[in-house]
Amino acid sequence: MADLLDLVTRAFAGFVFGRTETQRLPVRTSSAQAQAVYLPTAAPGLGDSGVIIGREVYSGKGYIYDPFQLYGQQLPAPHWLVLGESGNGKSALEKTYVLRQLRFRDRQVVVLDAQGEDGVGEWALIAQELGITPIRLDPLAALDRGIRLNPLDPAITSTGQLALLRTIIEVATGSSLDERSGFALKVAHAYVNETVTDRQPVLTDIVEQLRHPAPTAAEAMNVDVEDVRNWGLDVALVLDRLVDGDLRGMFDGPTTVGIDLDSPLIIFDLSHIDRNSIAMPILMAIVGVWLEHTWIRPDRKKRIFLVEEAWHIINSPFVAQLFQRLLKFGRRLGLSFVAVVHHLSDVVDGAAAREAAAILKMASTRTIYAQKADEARATGKVLGLPRWAVEIIPTLTPGIAVWDVNGNVQVVKHLVTEAERPLVFTDRAMTESAPVPALEAADDAGPVVMEKESTVA
Fold first, then answer.
1. What share of the chain is helix, strand, coil (3-state, %, to 5)?
2. Distance between CA 424 and CA 70 in Å, rounded?
3. Residue 370 within a domain
4. What CATH number did the domain enclosing 311 receive?
5. Which residue range is the domain that position 186 belongs to?
6. Tens digits of per-residue pLDDT, 145-192?
7. CA distance 336 to 331
């Protein structure tokens, strides 16, 4: 009776609604074959405007990133931190990112190139390909009419010049200027700017005034001239290093004529400077302030400032404070700061831990290549990475990194085109005696970019 009622019900439903139901026998299969019945899922991407970085490992989707497009929507700040041990693809990522950004008409990039071989920096081939002459800061070359950057360049405001002089001294001595030394420097700088009018003031003028202060400097404080001389003696000795010491020739004369600050790519080649000497943070300070006052302008251009070996910045309290100020220009003047560091422990455990924390907080984008397990756990704790990301960092192969874009965490395989490959892999140890890292190559021969032009202010 029940079967008859069921048949009548089905027939009536088919007559009224115009459809019939069918029954299928169950199919016995494997999980590998049955997975096709589930819809594919993947985390949302970062949009479709910008440059292609590579592919998301888990979904296979193209990974597109541009801090200027994302700013204000998914990014609170356009700054970027790149971490990882040597040989895992940081350099390849930096170079392809810059090459692809330069395809946009409103982009300009400055690179501080602190590494190299054969007497040139790592970016030499890219500069040659683009027809650009790097600004090579070299004490030996500077003595033979090499490149000079003048800390007292009139393009830098008087306030900026004094701040730069103070930073140079504090970096070199490792301590803050006391009030008396600061006063001696201030009056010497003011006197030089007032009296030297027929040419660019230079550091030699400051050193000479510190050693032989004008009587007006003493009168301003109602003290003896000899007191002012004694207050400025240590300052004079520090600045003298830039005039007659191991850094002579690079900063003790007028700025070299012909430095093109309108070039789409500006490369400062620091490869001839000992990276472990006090000279490197002094150079970083001078270049940073010089760029702040001569390069960053409210002209609607989007600027990228990429610094290799950036722990020289973040590990020095005085230079870190200077660059903190520079980073704050990002939101107002369209500057994206890219810091490349081998290990986070290099900076968070250093002398400038507080300043380092402030700079790391400004970096809304973090890219982490392979690290040892202990370093990965420490990095994950500082950056607030999810547990799954921390666990896979030690297992990453060259060219693959964890990307954290303001909480959007993905595993991304970097993609390099055949046209970019000879410009990117410039290390002889990699190209001659070792296999090229397993970075995925693109099918076409041109730089991989999205052709949509950026419109974000």
1. 45, 15, 40
2. 26
3. yes
4. 3.40.50.300
5. 158-244
6. 678 888 898 888 898 899 889 888 888 887 889 999 999 999 999 999
7. 9
